[in-house]
Amino acid sequence: MAPIRDYVAATSIGIVDGEIMLDLCYEEDARADVDMNLVMTGSKKMVEVQATAERRPFDDAQLAKMIALAKKGIERWLPSSRRCSPGCR
User: Fold this and answer.
1) How far apart are CA 71 and CA 58, in angstroms?
2) What DSSP line would sit under 20-56, residue for residue?
3) Which of 11, 16, 30, 69 has the fewest CB atoms within 10 Å, i.e. the most exposed one?
């Protein structure tokens, strides 16, 4: 097994009723106009970015806002990941 080299965290983001939201619950996700997932490492490298216009297309500005909000959420959650995996560098 390879050693853990970095922490990883993921979140969902979406546009629901015209509002960009972080960490959607099932009900929000089910009615989202846009659904996005972002996975990022502790060193702020992106592992996965996946976005789908479920009901309405989105523009570059909305995409940038969704990525910025997702990064803030992930940065808030990474300390928990570090506490759970103290052997990681």
Assistant:
1) 19
2) EEES--HHHHHT-SEEEEEEEETTS-EEEEEEEESSS
3) 30
Rounded distance, CA 28 to CA 46, Å? 24
Q: How many Cα atoms are found within 13 Å in the side-chain-facing hemisphere of 42?
A: 13
- Separation between Cα atoms, residue 82 and residue 6, nearest integer Å: 9
Q: pTM (2 decimals)?
A: 0.83
Q: Which residues pair with 40 in a beta bridge?
A: 9, 46
pLDDT at 77: 80
Task: Give residue-wise pLDDT tens across range 43-77.
Answer: 999 999 999 999 999 999 999 999 999 999 998 88
34 with 77: CB under 8 angstroms? no
Q: What's the confidence (pLDDT) of residue 25?
A: 93
> In terms of Cα–Cα distance, which of 14, 22, 5 is closest to 88?
5
- Length of the chain, in residues: 89
